[in-house]
Write a structure and sequence with these properties.
By secondary structure, this protein is an alpha/beta fold. Helices cover 28% and strands 23% of the residues. The strands form five sheets. Strands 18-17-19-20-16-21-22-23-24 form a nine-stranded mixed sheet, with helices on both faces. Strands 10-9-11-12-13 form a five-stranded mixed sheet. The model is unreliable at 45-59 and 541-545 (pLDDT under 50).
Length: 545
Protein backbone atom coordinates (compact mmCIF):
# COMPACT_ATOMS: atom_id res chain seq x y z
CA UNK A 1 0.00 0.00 0.00
CA UNK A 2 2.96 2.28 0.60
CA UNK A 3 4.07 2.24 -3.03
CA UNK A 4 0.86 3.07 -4.76
CA UNK A 5 -1.55 5.99 -4.58
CA UNK A 6 -5.27 5.56 -4.17
CA UNK A 7 -7.37 6.04 -7.31
CA UNK A 8 -10.95 5.88 -6.01
CA UNK A 9 -13.37 4.38 -3.51
CA UNK A 10 -15.61 1.48 -4.52
CA UNK A 11 -17.74 -1.34 -3.18
CA UNK A 12 -16.21 -4.17 -1.15
CA UNK A 13 -17.01 -7.70 -2.40
CA UNK A 14 -16.57 -9.14 1.09
CA UNK A 15 -18.47 -6.88 3.51
CA UNK A 16 -20.69 -5.20 0.83
CA UNK A 17 -19.73 -1.71 1.93
CA UNK A 18 -20.64 0.72 -0.84
CA UNK A 19 -17.51 2.90 -0.68
CA UNK A 20 -15.03 1.67 1.96
CA UNK A 21 -12.88 -0.31 -0.52
CA UNK A 22 -10.01 1.85 -1.81
CA UNK A 23 -8.55 1.05 -5.25
CA UNK A 24 -4.83 1.83 -5.79
CA UNK A 25 -2.78 2.52 -8.93
CA UNK A 26 -1.14 -0.91 -8.96
CA UNK A 27 -4.54 -2.62 -9.13
CA UNK A 28 -4.85 -3.84 -5.52
CA UNK A 29 -7.51 -2.55 -3.14
CA UNK A 30 -8.01 -2.34 0.60
CA UNK A 31 -11.32 -2.17 2.49
CA UNK A 32 -11.21 0.15 5.48
CA UNK A 33 -14.42 -1.37 6.82
CA UNK A 34 -13.60 -5.11 6.99
CA UNK A 35 -9.81 -4.59 6.85
CA UNK A 36 -9.37 -6.91 3.85
CA UNK A 37 -6.72 -6.54 1.12
CA UNK A 38 -7.52 -7.68 -2.43
CA UNK A 39 -5.26 -8.36 -5.37
CA UNK A 40 -5.82 -6.91 -8.84
CA UNK A 41 -8.20 -9.81 -9.56
CA UNK A 42 -10.30 -8.79 -6.50
CA UNK A 43 -9.47 -12.02 -4.72
CA UNK A 44 -8.80 -11.75 -1.01
CA UNK A 45 -5.11 -11.82 -0.10
CA UNK A 46 -3.30 -12.22 3.16
CA UNK A 47 -3.54 -9.06 5.22
CA UNK A 48 -0.37 -6.99 5.23
CA UNK A 49 0.95 -6.43 8.74
CA UNK A 50 4.16 -4.38 8.61
CA UNK A 51 6.55 -4.62 11.52
CA UNK A 52 6.82 -1.69 13.84
CA UNK A 53 10.46 -1.00 13.17
CA UNK A 54 12.68 1.38 11.31
CA UNK A 55 12.97 -0.81 8.21
CA UNK A 56 9.38 -0.48 7.13
CA UNK A 57 9.15 3.06 8.53
CA UNK A 58 11.80 4.16 6.05
CA UNK A 59 9.83 2.62 3.22
CA UNK A 60 7.04 5.09 3.70
CA UNK A 61 6.78 7.36 0.77
CA UNK A 62 4.91 10.30 2.29
CA UNK A 63 6.77 12.65 4.60
CA UNK A 64 6.27 16.25 5.59
CA UNK A 65 6.85 18.80 8.30
CA UNK A 66 4.84 20.12 11.22
CA UNK A 67 3.24 23.44 10.31
CA UNK A 68 -0.02 25.22 10.80
CA UNK A 69 -2.87 24.11 8.55
CA UNK A 70 -4.25 27.44 7.31
CA UNK A 71 -7.05 26.08 5.12
CA UNK A 72 -8.54 24.42 8.21
CA UNK A 73 -7.51 27.20 10.67
CA UNK A 74 -5.46 24.71 12.69
CA UNK A 75 -2.58 26.35 14.60
CA UNK A 76 0.99 25.04 14.54
CA UNK A 77 0.80 24.36 18.28
CA UNK A 78 -2.13 22.02 17.77
CA UNK A 79 -0.52 20.34 14.77
CA UNK A 80 2.60 19.83 16.87
CA UNK A 81 0.52 18.42 19.74
CA UNK A 82 -0.95 15.77 17.44
CA UNK A 83 2.27 15.48 15.34
CA UNK A 84 0.34 16.14 12.14
CA UNK A 85 2.60 16.93 9.17
CA UNK A 86 1.89 18.63 5.87
CA UNK A 87 3.38 18.46 2.40
CA UNK A 88 3.54 21.60 0.31
CA UNK A 89 4.08 22.51 -3.31
CA UNK A 90 5.32 26.03 -3.12
CA UNK A 91 2.97 27.78 -0.76
CA UNK A 92 0.12 25.35 -1.36
CA UNK A 93 -0.53 22.52 1.08
CA UNK A 94 -1.01 19.32 -0.91
CA UNK A 95 -1.19 16.60 1.75
CA UNK A 96 -2.02 16.13 5.45
CA UNK A 97 -0.18 13.30 7.18
CA UNK A 98 -1.79 11.91 10.33
CA UNK A 99 0.41 9.62 12.42
CA UNK A 100 -1.02 6.58 14.17
CA UNK A 101 0.47 4.67 17.11
CA UNK A 102 -0.04 1.32 18.81
CA UNK A 103 -0.67 0.69 22.51
CA UNK A 104 3.07 0.70 23.16
CA UNK A 105 3.38 4.14 21.59
CA UNK A 106 5.11 2.83 18.47
CA UNK A 107 4.47 4.80 15.30
CA UNK A 108 3.01 2.09 13.06
CA UNK A 109 0.95 3.86 10.41
CA UNK A 110 0.15 7.04 8.54
CA UNK A 111 -3.09 8.20 7.07
CA UNK A 112 -2.52 10.59 4.16
CA UNK A 113 -5.14 12.90 2.74
CA UNK A 114 -4.84 14.92 -0.45
CA UNK A 115 -6.19 18.41 0.20
CA UNK A 116 -7.42 19.14 -3.31
CA UNK A 117 -9.56 16.07 -4.04
CA UNK A 118 -9.92 14.79 -0.45
CA UNK A 119 -8.64 11.35 -1.43
CA UNK A 120 -6.82 9.42 1.27
CA UNK A 121 -4.75 6.31 1.71
CA UNK A 122 -2.97 4.52 4.53
CA UNK A 123 0.65 3.51 5.03
CA UNK A 124 1.59 0.86 7.52
CA UNK A 125 -0.68 -1.15 9.76
CA UNK A 126 -3.48 1.24 10.63
CA UNK A 127 -5.84 -1.64 11.51
CA UNK A 128 -3.71 -2.38 14.60
CA UNK A 129 -3.33 1.28 15.56
CA UNK A 130 -5.10 2.99 18.43
CA UNK A 131 -7.51 5.86 17.90
CA UNK A 132 -5.99 9.03 16.52
CA UNK A 133 -4.57 11.05 19.42
CA UNK A 134 -4.87 8.24 21.97
CA UNK A 135 -1.08 8.22 22.39
CA UNK A 136 -1.14 11.90 23.41
CA UNK A 137 -3.61 11.72 26.31
CA UNK A 138 -3.00 9.25 29.11
CA UNK A 139 -6.01 7.30 30.32
CA UNK A 140 -8.14 8.53 33.18
CA UNK A 141 -9.82 11.88 33.67
CA UNK A 142 -13.19 13.52 33.70
CA UNK A 143 -13.83 14.00 29.98
CA UNK A 144 -12.65 12.72 26.64
CA UNK A 145 -14.16 13.79 23.32
CA UNK A 146 -14.29 11.45 20.32
CA UNK A 147 -14.67 12.99 16.85
CA UNK A 148 -15.27 11.46 13.45
CA UNK A 149 -12.07 12.71 11.81
CA UNK A 150 -8.56 13.89 12.59
CA UNK A 151 -9.16 17.52 11.55
CA UNK A 152 -12.30 17.68 13.68
CA UNK A 153 -10.41 16.29 16.69
CA UNK A 154 -7.78 19.00 16.40
CA UNK A 155 -10.50 21.62 15.82
CA UNK A 156 -12.45 20.60 18.92
CA UNK A 157 -9.22 20.63 20.93
CA UNK A 158 -8.57 24.24 19.92
CA UNK A 159 -12.18 25.31 20.34
CA UNK A 160 -12.12 24.15 23.97
CA UNK A 161 -8.94 26.04 24.77
CA UNK A 162 -6.56 23.08 24.38
CA UNK A 163 -7.56 21.87 27.86
CA UNK A 164 -9.46 18.62 27.32
CA UNK A 165 -8.44 15.36 25.60
CA UNK A 166 -9.87 14.99 22.09
CA UNK A 167 -9.30 11.97 19.84
CA UNK A 168 -10.75 10.60 16.60
CA UNK A 169 -11.92 7.32 15.13
CA UNK A 170 -9.78 6.02 12.27
CA UNK A 171 -11.96 5.24 9.28
CA UNK A 172 -15.16 7.29 9.39
CA UNK A 173 -18.64 6.69 10.77
CA UNK A 174 -19.04 3.22 9.23
CA UNK A 175 -16.15 1.88 11.31
CA UNK A 176 -16.87 3.87 14.48
CA UNK A 177 -18.11 0.95 16.57
CA UNK A 178 -15.24 -1.38 15.58
CA UNK A 179 -12.69 1.38 16.18
CA UNK A 180 -14.05 2.14 19.65
CA UNK A 181 -14.22 -1.54 20.58
CA UNK A 182 -10.46 -1.74 19.97
CA UNK A 183 -9.92 1.08 22.46
CA UNK A 184 -12.75 0.20 24.84
CA UNK A 185 -10.47 -0.31 27.85
CA UNK A 186 -8.82 3.07 27.28
CA UNK A 187 -12.11 4.92 26.81
CA UNK A 188 -13.63 3.40 29.94
CA UNK A 189 -10.89 4.99 32.07
CA UNK A 190 -12.64 8.36 31.59
CA UNK A 191 -15.70 9.38 33.60
CA UNK A 192 -17.49 10.90 30.61
CA UNK A 193 -17.19 10.16 26.89
CA UNK A 194 -18.43 12.98 24.65
CA UNK A 195 -19.24 11.93 21.07
CA UNK A 196 -18.88 14.76 18.56
CA UNK A 197 -19.51 13.11 15.20
CA UNK A 198 -20.61 14.85 12.01
CA UNK A 199 -24.07 16.37 11.82
CA UNK A 200 -25.37 14.01 9.14
CA UNK A 201 -27.28 10.75 9.13
CA UNK A 202 -24.21 8.42 9.26
CA UNK A 203 -22.69 10.51 12.05
CA UNK A 204 -25.87 10.59 14.15
CA UNK A 205 -26.45 6.86 13.73
CA UNK A 206 -22.82 6.05 14.56
CA UNK A 207 -23.04 8.14 17.75
CA UNK A 208 -25.99 6.09 19.00
CA UNK A 209 -24.29 2.79 18.20
CA UNK A 210 -21.02 3.78 19.89
CA UNK A 211 -22.90 5.04 22.96
CA UNK A 212 -24.47 1.61 23.39
CA UNK A 213 -21.00 0.14 24.01
CA UNK A 214 -20.87 1.84 27.40
CA UNK A 215 -22.79 1.84 30.65
CA UNK A 216 -25.83 4.17 30.92
CA UNK A 217 -25.09 7.90 31.25
CA UNK A 218 -21.39 7.48 30.44
CA UNK A 219 -21.74 8.75 26.86
CA UNK A 220 -22.95 12.22 25.94
CA UNK A 221 -23.78 13.18 22.36
CA UNK A 222 -23.05 16.67 21.03
CA UNK A 223 -25.91 18.03 18.94
CA UNK A 224 -24.10 20.16 16.36
CA UNK A 225 -25.84 22.85 14.33
CA UNK A 226 -23.06 23.05 11.73
CA UNK A 227 -21.63 20.05 9.89
CA UNK A 228 -18.64 19.37 12.15
CA UNK A 229 -16.22 20.88 14.67
CA UNK A 230 -13.95 22.31 11.99
CA UNK A 231 -16.81 24.40 10.60
CA UNK A 232 -17.12 26.10 14.00
CA UNK A 233 -13.38 26.76 14.08
CA UNK A 234 -13.27 28.23 10.55
CA UNK A 235 -16.25 30.49 11.32
CA UNK A 236 -14.83 31.64 14.64
CA UNK A 237 -17.78 30.30 16.63
CA UNK A 238 -15.79 29.10 19.62
CA UNK A 239 -18.38 30.20 22.19
CA UNK A 240 -21.21 28.46 20.32
CA UNK A 241 -19.27 25.22 20.14
CA UNK A 242 -18.29 25.17 23.81
CA UNK A 243 -21.89 25.89 24.81
CA UNK A 244 -23.16 23.01 22.68
CA UNK A 245 -20.40 20.76 24.03
CA UNK A 246 -21.22 21.50 27.69
CA UNK A 247 -24.93 21.00 26.97
CA UNK A 248 -24.41 17.57 25.42
CA UNK A 249 -27.06 15.16 26.72
CA UNK A 250 -26.41 11.62 27.94
CA UNK A 251 -27.42 9.04 25.40
CA UNK A 252 -30.73 7.37 26.09
CA UNK A 253 -32.40 4.70 23.94
CA UNK A 254 -35.19 5.87 21.62
CA UNK A 255 -38.46 6.54 23.40
CA UNK A 256 -36.93 7.30 26.82
CA UNK A 257 -37.01 10.92 27.94
CA UNK A 258 -36.12 12.81 31.10
CA UNK A 259 -39.36 14.33 32.34
CA UNK A 260 -37.40 17.30 33.64
CA UNK A 261 -36.75 18.22 30.00
CA UNK A 262 -40.45 18.93 29.48
CA UNK A 263 -39.99 22.37 31.05
CA UNK A 264 -42.83 24.77 30.24
CA UNK A 265 -44.35 22.20 27.88
CA UNK A 266 -45.57 20.36 30.96
CA UNK A 267 -48.26 22.99 31.47
CA UNK A 268 -49.26 23.32 27.84
CA UNK A 269 -52.49 21.51 27.18
CA UNK A 270 -52.18 18.70 24.67
CA UNK A 271 -54.53 19.35 21.80
CA UNK A 272 -57.47 17.00 21.71
CA UNK A 273 -61.13 17.45 21.02
CA UNK A 274 -63.73 16.19 23.45
CA UNK A 275 -67.27 15.27 22.58
CA UNK A 276 -69.64 14.24 25.33
CA UNK A 277 -71.70 11.09 24.94
CA UNK A 278 -75.43 11.60 24.30
CA UNK A 279 -76.10 9.88 27.65
CA UNK A 280 -75.33 11.92 30.83
CA UNK A 281 -74.60 8.94 33.07
CA UNK A 282 -71.97 7.78 30.62
CA UNK A 283 -70.26 11.15 30.85
CA UNK A 284 -70.13 10.98 34.65
CA UNK A 285 -67.70 8.08 34.38
CA UNK A 286 -65.79 8.99 31.23
CA UNK A 287 -65.94 12.79 30.80
CA UNK A 288 -66.81 12.10 27.18
CA UNK A 289 -64.95 10.85 24.11
CA UNK A 290 -61.61 12.32 23.07
CA UNK A 291 -59.59 12.42 19.89
CA UNK A 292 -56.36 10.50 20.23
CA UNK A 293 -58.21 7.61 21.90
CA UNK A 294 -59.22 4.13 20.77
CA UNK A 295 -62.64 3.23 22.17
CA UNK A 296 -63.90 -0.32 21.79
CA UNK A 297 -67.60 -1.24 21.97
CA UNK A 298 -68.21 -4.96 22.43
CA UNK A 299 -71.15 -7.29 22.86
CA UNK A 300 -72.72 -10.50 21.70
CA UNK A 301 -75.11 -10.63 18.74
CA UNK A 302 -78.26 -8.49 18.83
CA UNK A 303 -77.28 -6.29 21.78
CA UNK A 304 -77.70 -2.97 20.00
CA UNK A 305 -74.20 -2.21 18.73
CA UNK A 306 -75.49 -0.86 15.42
CA UNK A 307 -78.06 1.33 17.17
CA UNK A 308 -75.41 2.81 19.47
CA UNK A 309 -73.03 3.48 16.57
CA UNK A 310 -75.86 5.30 14.72
CA UNK A 311 -76.54 7.42 17.79
CA UNK A 312 -72.88 8.31 18.25
CA UNK A 313 -72.29 9.26 14.60
CA UNK A 314 -75.32 11.54 14.60
CA UNK A 315 -74.40 12.99 17.98
CA UNK A 316 -70.87 13.91 16.90
CA UNK A 317 -72.27 15.49 13.74
CA UNK A 318 -74.75 17.56 15.76
CA UNK A 319 -72.33 18.69 18.48
CA UNK A 320 -69.08 19.31 16.60
CA UNK A 321 -67.93 20.66 13.26
CA UNK A 322 -65.70 17.64 12.72
CA UNK A 323 -65.61 15.32 9.74
CA UNK A 324 -66.55 11.69 10.38
CA UNK A 325 -65.28 8.54 8.68
CA UNK A 326 -67.20 5.25 8.59
CA UNK A 327 -65.88 1.81 7.65
CA UNK A 328 -68.85 -0.52 8.03
CA UNK A 329 -67.66 -3.87 6.81
CA UNK A 330 -71.05 -5.58 6.75
CA UNK A 331 -73.13 -2.96 4.96
CA UNK A 332 -72.96 -0.85 1.83
CA UNK A 333 -72.70 2.93 1.80
CA UNK A 334 -76.42 3.45 1.12
CA UNK A 335 -77.30 1.56 4.31
CA UNK A 336 -74.76 3.66 6.20
CA UNK A 337 -76.42 6.81 4.90
CA UNK A 338 -79.91 5.63 5.88
CA UNK A 339 -78.65 4.67 9.35
CA UNK A 340 -77.46 8.23 9.96
CA UNK A 341 -80.64 9.75 8.52
CA UNK A 342 -82.75 7.47 10.74
CA UNK A 343 -81.55 9.17 13.90
CA UNK A 344 -82.40 12.59 12.49
CA UNK A 345 -85.83 11.40 11.41
CA UNK A 346 -86.66 9.36 14.53
CA UNK A 347 -87.65 6.68 12.06
CA UNK A 348 -86.06 3.39 11.03
CA UNK A 349 -85.27 4.50 7.49
CA UNK A 350 -82.77 1.66 7.08
CA UNK A 351 -85.85 -0.57 6.67
CA UNK A 352 -87.13 -0.20 3.10
CA UNK A 353 -90.81 -0.66 3.96
CA UNK A 354 -90.66 2.15 6.51
CA UNK A 355 -88.66 4.38 4.16
CA UNK A 356 -91.36 4.02 1.51
CA UNK A 357 -93.92 5.68 3.78
CA UNK A 358 -92.26 9.07 3.24
CA UNK A 359 -92.08 11.37 0.27
CA UNK A 360 -88.87 11.95 -1.64
CA UNK A 361 -88.95 15.57 -0.41
CA UNK A 362 -89.05 14.49 3.22
CA UNK A 363 -86.23 12.00 2.71
CA UNK A 364 -84.25 14.70 0.92
CA UNK A 365 -84.70 17.05 3.88
CA UNK A 366 -83.30 14.48 6.31
CA UNK A 367 -80.45 13.78 3.91
CA UNK A 368 -79.62 17.50 3.65
CA UNK A 369 -79.46 17.77 7.45
CA UNK A 370 -77.06 14.84 7.77
CA UNK A 371 -75.13 13.16 4.98
CA UNK A 372 -75.34 16.10 2.57
CA UNK A 373 -73.46 18.25 5.06
CA UNK A 374 -70.32 16.96 3.35
CA UNK A 375 -68.86 15.84 6.68
CA UNK A 376 -69.48 12.09 6.37
CA UNK A 377 -67.08 9.82 4.48
CA UNK A 378 -67.75 6.10 4.07
CA UNK A 379 -65.66 3.26 2.74
CA UNK A 380 -67.30 1.81 -0.36
CA UNK A 381 -65.82 -1.66 -0.33
CA UNK A 382 -66.36 -4.67 -2.55
CA UNK A 383 -64.94 -8.15 -2.08
CA UNK A 384 -62.11 -9.10 0.26
CA UNK A 385 -59.62 -6.52 1.44
CA UNK A 386 -56.40 -6.81 3.42
CA UNK A 387 -55.82 -5.27 6.80
CA UNK A 388 -53.11 -2.99 5.39
CA UNK A 389 -55.62 -1.67 2.85
CA UNK A 390 -58.04 -0.93 5.67
CA UNK A 391 -55.31 0.90 7.55
CA UNK A 392 -54.49 2.91 4.42
CA UNK A 393 -58.16 3.94 4.12
CA UNK A 394 -58.25 5.03 7.77
CA UNK A 395 -55.04 7.02 7.33
CA UNK A 396 -56.42 8.67 4.19
CA UNK A 397 -59.64 9.62 5.99
CA UNK A 398 -57.62 11.12 8.81
CA UNK A 399 -54.96 12.99 6.85
CA UNK A 400 -56.49 13.77 3.47
CA UNK A 401 -60.16 14.18 4.49
CA UNK A 402 -59.49 15.60 7.97
CA UNK A 403 -61.79 13.12 9.71
CA UNK A 404 -61.43 13.57 13.47
CA UNK A 405 -63.67 10.60 14.36
CA UNK A 406 -63.61 7.28 12.55
CA UNK A 407 -65.89 4.30 13.14
CA UNK A 408 -64.69 0.78 12.31
CA UNK A 409 -67.35 -1.93 12.43
CA UNK A 410 -66.20 -4.58 13.09
CA UNK A 411 -62.86 -6.07 14.09
CA UNK A 412 -63.64 -9.77 13.76
CA UNK A 413 -64.57 -9.59 10.09
CA UNK A 414 -61.26 -7.89 9.27
CA UNK A 415 -59.19 -10.78 10.56
CA UNK A 416 -61.45 -13.54 9.33
CA UNK A 417 -59.53 -15.83 7.02
CA UNK A 418 -56.68 -13.41 6.38
CA UNK A 419 -53.30 -13.43 8.06
CA UNK A 420 -51.26 -15.99 9.95
CA UNK A 421 -52.92 -19.15 8.67
CA UNK A 422 -56.21 -18.57 10.41
CA UNK A 423 -54.67 -17.75 13.79
CA UNK A 424 -57.29 -15.22 14.84
CA UNK A 425 -55.53 -14.25 18.05
CA UNK A 426 -52.27 -13.43 16.29
CA UNK A 427 -54.07 -11.59 13.51
CA UNK A 428 -55.93 -9.43 16.04
CA UNK A 429 -52.66 -8.74 17.87
CA UNK A 430 -51.10 -7.47 14.65
CA UNK A 431 -54.11 -5.40 13.63
CA UNK A 432 -54.67 -3.85 17.06
CA UNK A 433 -51.02 -2.85 17.29
CA UNK A 434 -51.26 -1.14 13.89
CA UNK A 435 -54.55 0.55 14.80
CA UNK A 436 -53.08 1.84 18.06
CA UNK A 437 -50.06 3.21 16.18
CA UNK A 438 -52.38 4.82 13.64
CA UNK A 439 -54.31 6.59 16.41
CA UNK A 440 -51.04 7.93 17.82
CA UNK A 441 -49.86 8.98 14.36
CA UNK A 442 -53.01 10.80 13.27
CA UNK A 443 -54.64 11.89 16.56
CA UNK A 444 -58.07 10.60 15.52
CA UNK A 445 -60.73 9.29 17.83
CA UNK A 446 -61.20 5.67 16.68
CA UNK A 447 -64.43 3.94 17.72
CA UNK A 448 -64.05 0.23 17.16
CA UNK A 449 -66.66 -2.52 17.32
CA UNK A 450 -65.58 -5.95 18.53
CA UNK A 451 -67.43 -9.18 19.21
CA UNK A 452 -67.41 -11.43 22.27
CA UNK A 453 -66.55 -15.08 22.38
CA UNK A 454 -69.11 -17.59 23.51
CA UNK A 455 -68.77 -18.01 27.29
CA UNK A 456 -68.66 -21.40 28.93
CA UNK A 457 -71.81 -22.61 30.67
CA UNK A 458 -75.49 -22.59 29.88
CA UNK A 459 -76.07 -18.85 30.03
CA UNK A 460 -74.90 -16.82 27.07
CA UNK A 461 -74.69 -13.10 26.44
CA UNK A 462 -78.10 -13.06 24.75
CA UNK A 463 -79.48 -14.03 28.17
CA UNK A 464 -78.06 -10.93 29.78
CA UNK A 465 -74.85 -12.46 31.13
CA UNK A 466 -72.47 -9.92 32.62
CA UNK A 467 -69.48 -9.20 30.34
CA UNK A 468 -65.86 -9.11 31.47
CA UNK A 469 -62.64 -8.31 29.62
CA UNK A 470 -61.84 -12.02 29.42
CA UNK A 471 -64.88 -12.45 27.14
CA UNK A 472 -63.36 -10.34 24.34
CA UNK A 473 -63.04 -12.46 21.26
CA UNK A 474 -59.64 -13.34 19.92
CA UNK A 475 -56.97 -11.51 21.89
CA UNK A 476 -56.13 -9.70 25.10
CA UNK A 477 -54.54 -6.99 22.93
CA UNK A 478 -58.01 -5.49 22.38
CA UNK A 479 -58.20 -4.67 26.08
CA UNK A 480 -54.52 -3.72 26.43
CA UNK A 481 -54.37 -1.33 23.48
CA UNK A 482 -57.79 0.33 23.86
CA UNK A 483 -58.22 3.45 25.97
CA UNK A 484 -61.78 2.46 26.83
CA UNK A 485 -63.74 -0.77 26.52
CA UNK A 486 -67.53 -0.51 26.77
CA UNK A 487 -69.62 -3.68 26.91
CA UNK A 488 -73.29 -3.93 25.95
CA UNK A 489 -75.45 -6.35 27.96
CA UNK A 490 -79.09 -7.23 27.26
CA UNK A 491 -81.35 -10.13 28.15
CA UNK A 492 -83.13 -10.73 24.87
CA UNK A 493 -85.12 -13.57 26.44
CA UNK A 494 -86.60 -11.53 29.29
CA UNK A 495 -90.37 -11.92 29.68
CA UNK A 496 -90.76 -8.23 30.42
CA UNK A 497 -90.64 -6.36 27.11
CA UNK A 498 -89.11 -3.24 28.63
CA UNK A 499 -86.31 -5.31 30.11
CA UNK A 500 -85.83 -7.24 26.87
CA UNK A 501 -85.26 -3.94 25.03
CA UNK A 502 -82.99 -2.31 27.60
CA UNK A 503 -79.22 -2.45 27.15
CA UNK A 504 -76.78 -2.03 30.02
CA UNK A 505 -73.60 -0.09 29.19
CA UNK A 506 -70.83 -1.48 31.37
CA UNK A 507 -67.39 0.15 31.28
CA UNK A 508 -64.74 -2.58 31.46
CA UNK A 509 -61.74 -0.29 30.98
CA UNK A 510 -61.39 3.45 31.36
CA UNK A 511 -57.81 4.68 31.07
CA UNK A 512 -58.76 8.36 31.40
CA UNK A 513 -60.46 8.30 34.83
CA UNK A 514 -60.15 4.68 35.93
CA UNK A 515 -63.90 4.62 36.73
CA UNK A 516 -65.47 1.34 35.62
CA UNK A 517 -68.70 -0.60 36.17
CA UNK A 518 -72.27 0.03 35.01
CA UNK A 519 -72.54 3.48 33.46
CA UNK A 520 -76.15 3.69 32.25
CA UNK A 521 -79.15 1.89 30.78
CA UNK A 522 -80.41 2.53 27.24
CA UNK A 523 -83.89 1.64 26.08
CA UNK A 524 -84.51 0.78 22.44
CA UNK A 525 -87.71 2.23 20.96
CA UNK A 526 -88.97 -0.13 18.24
CA UNK A 527 -91.00 2.62 16.57
CA UNK A 528 -88.27 5.23 16.24
CA UNK A 529 -85.17 3.01 16.36
CA UNK A 530 -83.66 5.38 18.95
CA UNK A 531 -81.81 4.51 22.15
CA UNK A 532 -82.42 6.79 25.11
CA UNK A 533 -81.11 6.71 28.65
CA UNK A 534 -83.53 5.36 31.29
CA UNK A 535 -83.43 4.67 35.00
CA UNK A 536 -82.22 1.31 36.23
CA UNK A 537 -84.94 -1.23 35.33
CA UNK A 538 -83.34 -3.88 37.55
CA UNK A 539 -83.60 -2.15 40.91
CA UNK A 540 -83.63 -5.30 42.93
CA UNK A 541 -80.39 -6.43 41.25
CA UNK A 542 -78.76 -3.02 41.15
CA UNK A 543 -75.01 -3.49 41.37
CA UNK A 544 -74.39 0.26 41.52
CA UNK A 545 -75.43 0.53 45.13
Amino acid sequence: MADSKMVKHMACPKCNSSDANALYEDGHSYCFSCKTRFGADMKEEARVVPMANESWHKAWKTKGEVTNIPDRHISRDTAKKYNVQTQKYGSTTTHHIYQYYDKDNNHIANKVRETQNKKFWSEGNISSACLFGENIFSGGGKYITVCEGEIDAMSAYELMGSKWPVISIKNGAASAVDNCKQSLEYLNTFENIVLCFDNDKPGREASKLVAQLFEPNKCKIVNLELKDANEYLKMGRREDFTKIWWNAKPYTPAGIVNLADLGDRLFEEDYCETCLYPWPKMNEKTYGMRTGELICFTSGAGMGKSSIIRELMHHIMSNTLDNIGVLAMEENTKNTAFNIMSVEADERLYIREIRERFSKEQLQDWADKTINSGRFFAFDHFGSISNDEILDRVRYMAKALDCKWIFLDHLSILVSGQEDNGDERKSIDILMTKLRSLVEETGIGLLLVSHLRRPAGDRGHEDGREVSLSHLRGSASIAHLSDSVVALERNQQAEDEHEANTTTLRILKNRYTGDTGVACYLHYNKESGRMTQVDNPFMENDDES
